[in-house]
Amino acid sequence: MSSYLERGARGRIPAIFDAGSFEEFLGPSARVVSPHLAQLDVPVSFDDGVVVGRGLLGGQRVFGAAQEGGFMGGAVGEVHGAKLVGMLGRAIDEGAQAVLLLLESGGVRLHEANAGLIAVSEVMRAILDVRAAGIPVIAAVGGANGCFGGMGIAARCANTVIMSEEGRLAMSGPEVIETANGVEEFDSKDRALVWRTTGGKHRYLLGDCQVLVADDTGAFRAAAIAAIEALTGAARIGAAALTLDALQAEQAMLERRIRDFGALAEPMDIWRQLGVPDPAGVSMLEADDFVAMAAGHRAGPVTGDR
Amino acid sequence: MDWQTLASKLFPGGHDIVEHDSFLSGSGQVDAGAGADAAARTVAVIGTTGHAPIGIEIALAQAQAVLRTVREHPGRAILILVDTQGQRLRHRDEMLGINSYMAHLGKCIDFARRQGHTVLGLVYDQALSGGFITSGLIADACFALPQATIRVMGLPAMARITKVPEDRLTELAMDNPVFAPGAENYLRMGGLQAIWEPGPGVESTDAAAISLPDASANASANSSASASANSSASALASALAKALAQVEPTDRRMALGEARGGRHMAQAVAQAVRTGGDVRPA
Lengths: 306, 282
Known about the structure:
Chain A is an alpha/beta fold. Chain A contains eleven helices and seven strands.
């Protein structure tokens, strides 16, 4: 086992892509840094917290990015967002087999407030441009900082979301909700509650994450290869793009979710209602055992083409 | 401006927009000029009012309205009226996956655009962070009224989170569009295509369009309206008609931000990555 969570962006890329195959675009030696952080006397990073480029994944030409949680929590600023948008455009220009996004981000970088907000929306649109070109987009979420805010939305614009149990995927962070509406609303210090609410197993049971893996770079790599294969096989030409049928199915799934679980307050009650036999024991299960247990109980569609 | 007043000014030919729990939906008749057929004159309208927090229900209601428009009225333009305090900050929304509801709304709008529906956003009151990303910011082009408030968060909260003193942020916000709220800053950064002056007769006494070199649609919309008997109504109606006629399907916001001097790096960096070149200083 080699922990995905404990690696930074530059450690994940070579562990996920075929050895030695990844070529970075506009790497740190180009020293393209945020123009806004210096004004605030905040340290900059020579990659602005994101690695973008192309490589091979299981022999396929796959474009990719990895956000660095260690730099400002992976938050998106002007340069960071533009690097993602440029890479996504190039994936279309060069006819990539797929795009793999290793996401770890708090969302908009507040130090670059308005520029960050516009940038995140540009990333979203660029992801959907890639899908509209028939190229699948896979998102992986397994870093210590989770995937929040606008990037939590962007992740769900991908064809497939791969998570580890330790990964967290949501919109507003627990601290933000606690600050706005009090500790009774969401106790951000209650780590078990935070995990039950935003963690990989809950997202997998709800259907917002299509693949749940152990915290292991090999498992993430294998899942990404399988997800790409499932979306690019001979029978799946064009499966990457949005369709009216798929959106109507998603609409129905999200309506069902409110109807079935909208009155519940605790994630374990949702799991119980889904038929999970021992909700309190879910946290103890290893990824493989959990996936085996969850089969037949998940709320979402099984395939990853939403 | 309340949504009823706005709707009557945008659609002097009539509209059937209704409000239900802060969610707006319906359609309006655009003043597209003689010769335009009836189908081309009708615009679907969705949106929110009352600074609505965007929770999972209202996101889903908007998505449903977009999908219905795609199914029942192929090609009909869609106008998103934006007034939101941002995403709803509740445990229940997070537990049920509000990011998925937001993404679904964004995907529905994006799909509509690719099916040939022109999609415009109009911030008529307030737009904040998460509520804006999957509404106005995912439209083909977004516009705002001059008094609109647009921001990620207030400066005091930004100071708390970034640990940068509020005085320093306030000082920077004076001349840096990145830190300051407001429609004009989003215009300079390319996040807005243009600002629509409602014309005389409303809060603003300044009838001149906020005119940047590339905002000609906006400027001419207003000048052509001034001779009208009911100029405040037709200024917005005319701006809408022009925008519908001139919108482009590609995302030009980085180029606009560079041309307007509000965002110097984004366009150059994205181009350098896309073409394998270097970043030249803007």
